[in-house]
Amino acid sequence: MYFWKPSAMPVLSVICDSSEDRARTGRDRYGYKDYVFDWKDLVKRDDVDLVDVGTPNFLHKDVSIAAMRNGKHVYCEKPLALNAKEAKEMLDEARKRRVVHAVGYNNRCLPAVVMAKNLIEEGHIGEVINCRAEYLQDWAISPLVPMEWRLDKKAAGSGALGDIGSHAIDLARFLVGEFEEVLAVSRTLVKERPISELSMLGGGKVSGKDVSGRREKVGVDDSVEFLARFEDGAAGLFHASRFSHGRKNTLAFEIYGSKGSLVFSSESMCELRFYSTGDAEGLQGFKTIKMGRQHPYGEAFWPLADSGMGYADLKSIEISALMDAISGKGKVSADFEDGYRAMLICDAVIESADTKEWVAIQKGD
Amino acid sequence: MYFWKPSAMPVLSVICDSSEDRARTGRDRYGYKDYVFDWKDLVKRDDVDLVDVGTPNFLHKDVSIAAMRNGKHVYCEKPLALNAKEAKEMLDEARKRRVVHAVGYNNRCLPAVVMAKNLIEEGHIGEVINCRAEYLQDWAISPLVPMEWRLDKKAAGSGALGDIGSHAIDLARFLVGEFEEVLAVSRTLVKERPISELSMLGGGKVSGKDVSGRREKVGVDDSVEFLARFEDGAAGLFHASRFSHGRKNTLAFEIYGSKGSLVFSSESMCELRFYSTGDAEGLQGFKTIKMGRQHPYGEAFWPLADSGMGYADLKSIEISALMDAISGKGKVSADFEDGYRAMLICDAVIESADTKEWVAIQKGD
Amino acid sequence: MYFWKPSAMPVLSVICDSSEDRARTGRDRYGYKDYVFDWKDLVKRDDVDLVDVGTPNFLHKDVSIAAMRNGKHVYCEKPLALNAKEAKEMLDEARKRRVVHAVGYNNRCLPAVVMAKNLIEEGHIGEVINCRAEYLQDWAISPLVPMEWRLDKKAAGSGALGDIGSHAIDLARFLVGEFEEVLAVSRTLVKERPISELSMLGGGKVSGKDVSGRREKVGVDDSVEFLARFEDGAAGLFHASRFSHGRKNTLAFEIYGSKGSLVFSSESMCELRFYSTGDAEGLQGFKTIKMGRQHPYGEAFWPLADSGMGYADLKSIEISALMDAISGKGKVSADFEDGYRAMLICDAVIESADTKEWVAIQKGD
Amino acid sequence: MYFWKPSAMPVLSVICDSSEDRARTGRDRYGYKDYVFDWKDLVKRDDVDLVDVGTPNFLHKDVSIAAMRNGKHVYCEKPLALNAKEAKEMLDEARKRRVVHAVGYNNRCLPAVVMAKNLIEEGHIGEVINCRAEYLQDWAISPLVPMEWRLDKKAAGSGALGDIGSHAIDLARFLVGEFEEVLAVSRTLVKERPISELSMLGGGKVSGKDVSGRREKVGVDDSVEFLARFEDGAAGLFHASRFSHGRKNTLAFEIYGSKGSLVFSSESMCELRFYSTGDAEGLQGFKTIKMGRQHPYGEAFWPLADSGMGYADLKSIEISALMDAISGKGKVSADFEDGYRAMLICDAVIESADTKEWVAIQKGD
Question: Would you call the peptide bond into A5 cis, given omega within 30 degrees of 0 as the criterion?
Fold first, then answer.
């Protein structure tokens, strides 16, 4: 319990998995009180106040809306839905029901990212000129990597774009501002995949042999590059790919402003690199700032900087903000409006890749 | 619960703190069932099987021995005791009582460190020629940092040497082998400190002013450098310091062997740098290997590499091994013998700094 | 004299500068035999075999063509001309006259770049999927930086694009192959500049005050971002900017292929980072290869790797190739055809920024 | 000619090599007017004002003293002599003859090193607490690397210690101050080497096979580690080795002071890393400062930072200072007194490795 005292204390009530076996194991492993195997049962339960929607993307809308209709708060994984239209329905429902709604753009919670946000807002880098952001992985390169829902357009909506690129999009919105228009190149590099008894291991490793010989068409993008213009005049370069050998899970950005620059990579998750023209001449250079006690959330985590941060730690920040929001004492890190706006941008990226034209981002509402 | 199914499931029974207020808060915050404020009560309780000794160093021996005499398993923080003599008593008791005994040299659990160990054992770097290891911090540089038990010889035994240097010593024993002799320079750089209403913040920052004007002599080392010879002929360069500006919490080593080299720094905790003469000529270079699913403990943590690792994650590895040991299915990461041998080396370092002569490490038994 | 014995020995005959004073100083400082102050005199001289055209861009064509018409070999700075049309005239002349013609894309000579080329050609990274390349500087950010020819469209043709972006374009052609089409965002961020007694110092520092108050419109781009498709199917992300604080002179690329990746930055000019799926599982990672004796040109430079490389060293490689070409024993690093093709791409980038549409690269001939 | 106008213009008069063939090639390759093959002829010549002594170490004394007796200025390679006694004779002669005397500790000329010196002198890091310095190479690890003068005690005096370690010692003297005492571990790791038709390539690679079977004992150290105390109370950790795989030619230091820290490695020769407690809280971190126009010697080299620096560039700084000294307008980078004091420290290191006791550095005079 890093954040003490919490504004609300989460209780693990019910876990849901369509496989009873997995549901029961989940209950035991993570300490839930009960399990179900139909999400429709879960969203109605009296002992549930908050539903954490961690399903494949195609179910986000139905589960979230059902939960909200039952008066539950909802935390939904990203991307918020298969497309902006669905996301808008979810947002509308959330607004109507006045429940707390959060979307899992957890990288906004990274201390170094929050520090970047603060430095920008305080004017440390002046006006933003460029933003380059990327989220690169390499697990899908082998054509032997079998079909799974993340590679299936019906289940996922898009590929690298929604799954990881939307994190980069969300951070750019968070740090730089709203997008004006985008133009993209999108490619499906491995066009069909085995339907498979093969089980996928980490990093794109595949065990066993593909004995079935059956193949399914991959509908989603493996790699997307796009240019963006922001409303305030900045320009953006984005790249999301599951085909970048050596990049295991790298979310990175470089933001150049009129007075300084900020560089971040999740490969060094607790560091922010900052170049400031406020430094004395001859003493200017990128400074590597290690997140520690005096940085965002630092008191909760680290008596000393350079003590590391794991995925669970990051999640605990997100959950702490969620508890604050439910208690009426704060805001979630990213809400359904953020989720919806990211989907508007994703939809525009997909359209521009098809039409080969600049596509303006819908203003939403 | 990263490691599933665990060989034993820890239950948080009783927490102890000399302050009732802190004890109660601890119980609530971390979810213990009960609290006490005298450790003598804790070590006797029937609902306690394992005692985690996280007191200041001077209490390690008494608490651990009392716990073992009551048949409890013991996990004791490092350094194991104030000196090797005390540590030997603890080890003797542990052997006599046949309980599980562990010492908190948790850096042995780091996936990159375990991978280094494996590479060395498999001969990837040949015979070790040199080992440089350091543990550097900077929190104690300000003379305003007030006295606390870590700066008090009676409570801590030594300063940077035992507190952090012993981690570097332990890793050198783990990776390279036993020490033959050492020669050290040891300095107390700030010779007295305020006894203080001041409260210490992270990174050596101090809030408020020192109004009392009272000072106490600092008895422990702030910075220790030493040379070592290993039994197998390797040479070592060590440095432990709380006075290294910019190094917040850096445990690092470089090991050069006859066939390759290994470089590690906790500043990039999930990376191991490996130079191999086995690589083709012209293609040799330090390779940065990111810990992922196929590396030690990786399956428990990461679907993808580069997902970070926090202090709590590291602890969970240590505890998993401890549960295995208690269940008779494995070994602790480091036991009281490791704790004792590290103390023998620390004692020799202190002696050699005093006498300015090489001091052979006692063979122990 | 790194390359011994050279195929031809350059003799410094005549230096030309429109200012007699500078011409004379140049002669003395660099050891030329004579000086002139009209380039028309230089290109005719009998004691000149090779003309090095280091003028502002708008003169490249006239000087080069005149030199070639007098039978001289020509080494011309990049970009080859103000636009592709001019460049084509130069190339046509060169072909007609059968002289040696070289353009100053000297980064092709970097040992690490040549090594990258070799690794790609030998199949080490498989098929190229993505290429990101950038050339970033920060000297022009201050609005006090006065007008100079590099900021003047008539004299320079374009701004960051031709001056530095064309290096990135040339390396992408060298390493990945021909471009198919581009789409760009181009911006002039400081729209007018002082005409000025101010003298510009390094890194965008300006001494003195702008007393004149006169301003001139800046016609060229300060920052250009563009997407590219390559003929072989790869996609590219490019950025050229003089407005990237902290990037003093950074030419960098990342190339991701189906079997591995290559990463280079001029910030570590003598290193190439290489990720290979040919490495054993669990031992894969980016390897930092230090250019040394067994790498391209290494024997000429380094008894040991990690001995540094300066701009003059790089130039000596380029000149050595030029001497070889003149002696009929080799090829220049980049010739007028390379210069012309880079101009075709630059022209397409400019057009696409204007029309906001994808522009196909002319095939040239 | 980077430095213009030079205070004196060097003329390449006579080159000397014991092999006439090499002498003639050297003359042609480097543009000398004449050559000789006995150094005794060279030191007497009227057309020689300055003798550059680049022989194996055992000849430094005789050549230098003969040159000085003939009134020549002398630039002598490092280490200055086989031992401090010889070095003292050279220094005495230099003082008597009032010639300019320089020793090739050229790393003092590195812009980043000079900047470090300036920052320390201006108090930016406060009092120095620790200095760690190392010079590591890996060319000698293979037992097939044949005997050469650098491995022969009679010709070289010492091994890694004098050849490369003395650079680290010299920089520590330059940056931190005089040494008080040292204690060392020294090892000859490959105890005999082939006398050989084998020719040594870069990086310890050897071509051909050792057919002779003849072996010679290696008398010099391959790796030396030592502790030092400085006169002003700082402590030092040093390492010089030719057995550090992956370190091709790495001279590095870390200096920790009471107010900040400086980190340098020749692997990034034009960068200095600086941590300053003068930076605002929360914004402290190691800053990577790129050497550019406003840094030491920068105006001579770089219109823009990050343009690289080669060995020849570094040499040109050293020679510029030498020309200034000869012209009475400046001082050499390091003189025979520096050379002598480094030898005193080397001798103490050797003695302490033998006696296993701390050895005080002779005060010299």
Answer: yes
Residue C310 and residue D308: Cβ atoms within 8 Å? yes
Tell me whether C135 touches chain A (CB under 8 Å). no
Within chain B, strands assigned E span 14-16, 34-36, 50-53, 73-76, 101-103, 128-136, 179-187, 192-194, 199-200, 206-207, 215-217, 223-230, 235-241, 250-257, 260-265, 271-276, 286-290, 359-360
**Interface membership of D274 toward A (CB under 8 Å):** yes
User: Which are the contacts of D36, defined by CB distance < 8 A and separation ≥ 6?
Assistant: D14, D15, D16, D23, D42, D45
| Amino acid C210: pLDDT | 60
**Is the pLDDT reported for residue B12 higher than 50?**
yes
Handedness of CA D96, D98, D104, D107 (dihedral sign): positive
H or E segment and range at residue B343: helix B336-355
Residues of A in contact with B249 (CB under 8 A): 304-307
Count the helix, strand and coil residues of chain B and give each as a percent rounded to the nearest 5: 35, 25, 40
pLDDT-derived band at A48, boundaries 50, 70, 90 = very high
Nearest-CA distance from B259 to chain A in Å? 25
Q: Residue type at C314?
A: L
Q: Hey, are the CB atoms on B246 and D285 less than 8 Å from each other?
A: yes
Q: How many CA atoms lie within 13 A of C5 on its CB side?
A: 8
ipTM value of the model? 0.95
| Paired sense of beta strands D128-136 and D235-241, if any | parallel
Q: Are B276 and B285 in contact (CB under 8 A)?
A: no
Residue D203, pLDDT above cutoff 60: no
Q: With an 8 Å Cβ cutoff, are A250 and B306 in contact?
A: yes
Side-chain half-sphere of C144: how many Cα atoms within 13 Å?
A: 14
Helices D166-175 + D336-355 axis angle, to 10: 120
Distance from CA of C276 to the nearest CA of A (A): 8
Instruction: With a cut of 70, say whether residue A76 has pLDDT above it.
Output: yes
pLDDT at position B198 over 50: no
Q: Tell me if A289 and D288 make a contact (CB, 8 A cut-off).
A: no
pLDDT at C207: 55
pLDDT given at position A201 = 43
Contacts of B303 in chain A (CB under 8 A): 202
pLDDT at C43: 97
The DSSP output letter for D162 is I
Strand partners, C354: none
What residue type is D69 in one-letter code?
R
Encoded tokens for D351: 């003695």
> Distance, in angstroms, between C233 CA and closest chain A CA?
10
Q: Chain D: give the shortest CA distance to residue B238, in Å.
A: 8
Distance CA B295, CA B112 (A): 8
Between the two ends of chain A, the Cα-to-Cα distance in Å is 37
